[in-house]
């Protein structure tokens, strides 16, 4: 459906996209994941024809975005990070304007408008000025304009940025619904966002594609990094003697525990499950094993390993891996707090 071949974009001496190649198949929701500044938005702007490439080409269902822009763009609906809406129009007026600009036949506009509004659930606010809508509804209006003309491909750049947790959940549900009838590409630097809605994930770093697969397969590549966390009521020397008798341990990291305890991170060889061996070893040594937790590699671990960047937390609640929260990650912008505006949002 989309084929990107050796795409490069330079700004002076800075390379934003560096010899990037990938293929996007029909009917799949793709997540374009990477840290801020990785080249995601630049790549999307090139794919949609909003920006020219320094080198390489993009084919949309066989049409070159550079040489056949009209044929290629008819297949694409695009929502930039900032929704391209006119604040002094109502959603009804704005979407009618977009239909006219995209040359939707006049006889089809009323039915098409109704369908798009129902899909994005903005019918009840269609006659309010866009400037009086909450950020969540403005984002829905932006997605609605991307659906005008019923394009086969929907491209969404950071579709939930600046939304509150309730709005984020609603937009994610909408994206899943749209994925039933469209090929969708969405960019994000939030792991949980991509993991929650996408069938396949592409990770970009420094303008290069560093991984492309399902979340399950990506984490499986790092399955050998399974760790067993132990807390033992013993001294380190006692605990080491016990573990030295257990086969299958690659190496152990030691930490001070509470009073009269020691903590250890066990790294198995070849992802072996050592829990039973370790349990029996400490039982035979009559040393109480207070805790043993098995932690598998997460998508966050894959992301950090491949990009060297830390992932952003999930604004909708929780953390992106389920194992830890990232305090250094960049936070989303605060949602609008004007009560008159937020009252319009569900």
Report on the architecture of this protein.
It is a single chain. The chain is an alpha/beta fold and 346 residues long. It is 32% helix and 26% strand. The chain has helices at 40-47, 69-73, 91-101, 106-120, 135-147, 165-178, 191-197, 215-221, 236-243, 275-284, 299-307, 339-342, and strands at 2-11, 14-24, 29-33, 55-60, 63-64, 76-79, 153-157, 183-188, 200-205, 208-213, 227-232, 249-256, 262-268, 289-295. The strands form three sheets. A six-stranded mixed sheet has the order 6-7-8-3-9-10, with helices on both faces. It has a four-stranded antiparallel sheet with strand order 2-1-4-5. The longest helix has 15 residues, at 106-120. The protein is elongated and about 85 Å long. Residues 319-346 have low confidence and may be disordered.
